[in-house]
Amino acid sequence: MRIELREAGFAYLQGTPFASIALAGVSLCIEPGERIGITGPVGSGKSTLLELLAGLRQPGTGSVYFDGLPAARRRKKTVPGPGRIGIAFQSPESCLFEKTVIADVASGPRNLGINEAPARERAEAALKSMGLDPVSYGRRSPWSLSTGEQRRVALAGLLALEPEVLLLDEPSASLDPAARESLTGQLLKINGKGVTIVIAGHDMDEMARFARRLVIIDEGRLAADGPAAALLTDTGLMERHGLEAPATVRLSGMLAQATGRPVPPFLTEASAASFLRGLSGPSEPREPRHAS
Question: Architecture of domain 3-242 in CATH?
Answer without folding.
Answer: 3-Layer(aba) Sandwich (3.40)
